[in-house]
């Protein structure tokens, strides 16, 4: 929901307490927000936000409006700060939890984003955007966790490595990752092949690469990393990935 976040009418957030009329007219802030007039939003809404005697609902609306301006300007952290204050004023705003979560995710702070999506769902289990965001991020974190679990490990068991080239791969996390990616790409392409002859040809090509790698490693001018990168590019280019 990054962008202009709709400002909630004051009566939907809760009117001011009886007998306590707001000392600031928030109408100009709301009008500027509806008109998407960024400069006026900042000017008019600042006056409402900075006035501690303004009605809580008006301050929340002003914070939401100003946060929307910060989002359009790419000032994510300032928008998050406004959402922080809005949620301090009213911790039951599911939309704002979800919106703040999207900003945290944009900033790369996945744990905070997931916590905000979860908070939005606790407040409103039917919140479609928060539910979609939560599930998508949970899957992303699961995938990242799986990748981290094998990071720096090649496709073979280093404990049984005997060849010098295999030991070199095991000793270098970047080479180990390349080896694992080559193996995964080879497996994907073989799995996608339908004709037995094509599968045999793919396996012969991979066997030939490994044989060349084993024979050339250690010779003057041989660049193992470059050879592995070239092989990976060739494999990924075979199916357009």
From TrEMBL:
A Pfam family annotated for this UniProt entry: TPR_11
The record's keywords, sorted A to Z, are:
Repeat, TPR repeat
List the InterPro entries: TPR-like_helical_dom_sf, TPR_rpt, Ycf3
Q: Where are the TPR repeats?
A: 60-93, 94-127
| The protein's name in its UniProt record | Tetratricopeptide repeat protein
| Organism this protein belongs to | Bradyrhizobium aeschynomenes
